[in-house]
Amino acid sequence: MVKIFILTKRSIFLIVLVSNTINPLLASPLYTDSVSQSYQERAISYLDIQNSLTSKGLQKEIAEAKVKKLFKEDTSLKLAYLYKHPDLALSKNIVIDTFAKQALFDKYCDLNSYDSLVGFVQSIHPNLDKKQLSAIKQIAKLS
């Protein structure tokens, strides 16, 4: 009787051990449409782009006006996805510098436009694959 109890304990232990090692291998990453609070804290903000422009020698008021011209509407959610999307793998500093360069030359960046987003990402990574293009399409469709 004691042996059956020990076998049952061992088998339960083995089942738990095997399930815990296989489960992470089978799990797929979960991407939600909402961005968590900690996710937003690490995302790119207008202030980051403005600070990049002021570090290049622009006055604070001029840098603020240029950033407002760059994005005519609130696109902070799309900025967060653009920087944090795993298929794009963009560096935060490079994205900020690229947006600052566009703002410096008074270019408008429409983050709702797929073509505009593709042009922006291609200025960072010239050769885009299908995964990256589909990620850009997802970001452009966000509202």
Automatic annotation (TrEMBL):
The lineage of its organism: Bacteria, Pseudomonadati, Campylobacterota, Epsilonproteobacteria, Campylobacterales. This is DUF4476 domain-containing protein.
